[in-house]
Write a structure and sequence with these properties.
The protein has 14 helices and 18 strands. The chain is of the alpha/beta class. Helix 1 packs parallel to helix 5 and helix 1 packs parallel to helix 10.
């Protein structure tokens, strides 16, 4: 459990930096919030013309939840959390083969986690800054020129502006990273692609997530969204690179081809593809870099250290990274020292977040019917009550060791609104 105490009473002493924050997802607005809180002047730019409405559910655990509390948005986040009962792993006819409810690892454990749809978290964060921070939609940096004393940014719109610092919070395929750190890709691919979108709710959709594995390393998951919509998650394994760069229509055609014989609810899902307005498709991978800053430019969140959806902690890592970066800038007159201390704080946390259980992709998406049946048998054993109680006790024991975020204000109550 994260402790709400200070390692030291760190008072804000940073410059009145004028900072461009590139990206309006999770890390970007969170960073802009804390920069403004500490007296700096952030400008947030988002390439999309408006807030993105697509995306999967994300978890806030421990440190991520703590940052949400310090921002004063935890109650708003909690009002949007899922109330689903658990997960059914089903066969092609939709019959449950393995089931585990939301409290399989203990009620205390589930209470410590917050699960919310990414678009709803994005909206909460944006609403929290929109009256205090200049937010620009439908634009992005075309060039970033670090001139030692300032950074000149030319935008795709043709506008040219100067900033003291630039922070890339623009996701796993960060253009900021590419412009500043070069074309060498730091992405470690999981040989896995995922598509997320919603479809009209039907009578077969209850309060349980239904997860189905099809031969060929494919999976279909349906989870309740609201009274009218159901979230769909389609994943497939592939060694081919570049599908994420295709246009949306071509990606949908690929999905149609790959899942046409998948079974379960695939026919219903595929019929809705042509009408979607929240379709999201991307590769699954991690970003691993030796450094997260260069000159007056730094990276935060997925742009610098994406842990991948497999880890389940991407949103928490983004919030913590934003909090630490803004806090270090608030207490250092020299931005380079702030960047260095930011990396010192974040590196162990990111290293832990990027640890993926070996073979987790093959376990989640087996290739054959035999390995699917074997996987289900193993999970059926693991989720026996006696086993889950043992695992829950082990997890609780490890978590009780705790971890501490620094406080960048003398009075922690100043974070609450």
């Amino acid at each position: 459990m994260l402790l709400r105490r200070s390692l030291s009473n760190l008072k804000a002493s940073g410059e009145n930096y004028n900072i461009l924050v590139v990206g309006g997802g999770i890390a970007g607005p969170a960073l802009a919030f804390f920069l403004h809180r500490y007296g700096m002047k952030p400008v947030m730019v988002e390439r999309a013309p408006k807030l993105r409405l697509s995306g999967q559910w994300v978890n806030l655990e421990a440190e991520g939840k703590e940052v949400a509390w310090r921002m004063g948005i935890e109650s708003k986040v909690r009002s949007k959390i899922t109330e689903e009962q658990g997960i059914h792993i089903v066969d092609s006819a939709g019959r449950p083969q393995v089931s585990f409810d939301a409290n399989s690892f203990g009620e205390n454990r589930s209470a410590e986690e917050i699960e919310i749809r990414r678009p709803e978290l994005n909206n909460i964060l944006y609403e929290h800054i929109r009256n205090d921070v200049e937010c620009i939609f439908g634009d992005s940096p075309q060039t970033i020129d670090d001139r030692d004393d300032k950074v000149q940014v030319k935008f795709t719109s043709g506008n040219i502006r100067e900033f003291d610092l630039v922070v890339g919070a623009d996701g796993i395929h960060s253009k900021t990273r590419r412009l500043v750190f070069g074309d060498e890709s730091p992405i470690s691919y999981a040989n896995l692609y995922a598509a997320f979108f919603s479809i009209p709710r039907s009578e077969s959709d209850g309060n349980w997530v239904r997860f189905y594995s099809a031969p060929g390393g494919r999976s279909v998951a349906l989870r309740p969204d609201d009274q009218h919509r159901t979230q769909v998650y389609l994943c497939f394994r592939s060694n081919e690179r570049g599908y994420e760069r295709l246009d949306a229509d071509t990606q949908k055609h690929l999905i149609l081809k790959l899942f046409s014989d998948a079974g379960f609810e695939a026919p219903r899902i595929l019929r809705e593809l042509s009408t979607l307005n929240d379709f999201y498709f991307d590769t699954v991978g991690q970003v691993k870099m030796d450094r997260w800053s260069k000159g007056r430019v730094a990276l935060v969140g997925d742009a610098g250290y994406c842990p991948s959806p497999l880890s389940g902690v991407g949103a928490s890592v983004a919030l913590v990274g934003a909090y630490i970066l803004a806090g270090e800038l608030s207490r250092h007159q020299d931005y380079s020292k702030a960047f260095k201390q930011y990396e010192t704080w974040m590196r162990p946390y990111v290293t832990k977040a990027q640890k993926i259980i070996p073979g987790s992709v093959r376990l989640a998406l087996p290739n054959t019917r035999t390995t699917i049946a074997l996987r289900n048998a193993v999970l059926g054993f693991i989720f026996r009550p006696a086993i889950t109680r043992f695992i829950a006790k082990h997890i609780t024991s490890k978590d009780s060791q705790g971890s501490v975020l620094p406080n960048y204000k003398t009075n922690i109550n100043t974070f609450e609104k």
